[in-house]
Design brief:
With 340 residues, this protein is an alpha/beta fold. Helices cover 39% and strands 16% of the residues.
């Protein structure tokens, strides 16, 4: 894949490992399960946004920016990694945090990713749920511009055509790993939210003429809306690459059965999925994205969508630092009784 024509700055540890989950495969008795460890990209505990930020920050530096501006939910993995990328490249970082989740207790707004934002000196403001957060971010960038700064705005999740190039690169990386391991892969599964990961994968595989199904397990939007959004960005990214031929919407597979009560709202299936992978393989998922994504994978196995004899790769998109904001879901500790 010819990506060197795009501005890029090296931020992560690539290629990330591709591991066979032997214990889990035996435990489930279904398809052979592999995991792509994009939780180990190395930027402030890692995650999938690091791939996108290599191209986004590269573009920002090429334009002479001195400040990164972005937005996300309170426990945003994207904001945490953007703040880290800013530190690494000598830029400042301003973020808007949308209060999408308000029922997780006081720790939710101070621990996990928010704590890391504070440690890295990210300047952030809160916004109520329901606003056009990208428009709010653009307005903040304009405000900084009037103050003499040179801001570069990154949309939520880093999900535009430039950010999606990170997962074009990942598609290329995975296909090389499949070749090296002599693997025939029947499906790729991952959590899908702001669409950039799935869109980049689809555009990259399309450009390489590799027809591996990519199933996105939605963490927020219903299937029809998510499919349309992913397809729109995948087509635009493929056009940016100069890929030949149409990328049909039929290539976009979305499972919305794990959304539950909405973005960031826990489900029993998510809690069980996180506990299962941790206890079988010692790998920690996150409660917002990869936990629900892995719950979707387990559901597909139970429903017979994925079966014994097949080989599936789950992309771990990171975010385990958010577990600290949801600790009450997993802790078996109880407060000691106070002696009187």
């Amino acid at each position: 894949m010819y990506l060197s024509r795009f501005a890029r700055v090296r931020l992560g540890h690539f290629p990330t490992a591709l591991e066979r989950l032997d214990n889990l495969t035996r435990h489930l008795g279904g398809p052979e399960i592999w995991i792509k460890r994009d939780d180990c990209t190395g930027l402030a505990t890692g995650g999938n946004k690091t791939r996108k930020l290599e191209f986004l920050v590269g573009d920002a530096l090429a334009q002479g920016a001195d400040t990164l501006v972005t937005q996300g939910a309170t426990q945003s993995n994207h904001v945490r990694q953007t703040a880290a990328a800013a530190c690494k490249t000598g830029l400042r970082c301003h973020a808007l945090l949308e209060q999408r989740v308000t029922n997780m207790g006081d720790a939710y707004s101070t621990s996990g990713n928010v704590l890391m934002d504070d440690i890295m000196g990210c300047e952030y403001e809160e916004r109520p749920e329901g606003l056009d957060m990208n428009a709010e971010g653009e307005a903040l960038a304009e405000k900084l511009r009037t103050q003499g700064r040179k801001p570069y705005f990154i949309p939520g999740g880093g999900s535009n055509t430039i950010g999606a190039l990170g997962y074009v690169a990942c598609a290329n990386e995975m296909v090389q790993q499949f070749d090296d391991e002599r693997l025939t892969v029947d499906a790729i599964v991952h959590a899908t939210g702001s669409t950039g990961t799935q869109a980049g994968l689809l555009a990259g595989l399309h450009a390489m003429n590799v027809d591996i199904p990519v199933m996105g397990v939605s963490v927020r939007a219903p299937e029809d809306k998510q499919r349309a959004n992913v397809h729109r960005l995948a087509v635009a990214t493929a056009d940016l690459l100069g890929a030949r031929g149409d990328l049909p919407q039929s290539r976009v597979a979305v499972d919305d059965t794990e959304v539950g009560g909405g973005y960031g709202q826990p489900t029993d299936a998510m809690v069980d999925a996180i506990a299962l992978l941790a206890r079988q393989e010692g790998i920690l998922l996150d409660p917002v994205y990869s936990g629900k994504g892995f719950a979707g994978l387990l559901s597909m196995i139970r429903r017979g969508v994925l079966t014994k004899g097949q080989r599936v790769v789950f992309i771990h998109t990171g975010g385990s630092s958010a577990l600290f904001a949801y600790g009450h879901l997993f802790s078996r500790q109880t407060a000691p009784t106070r002696a009187i």
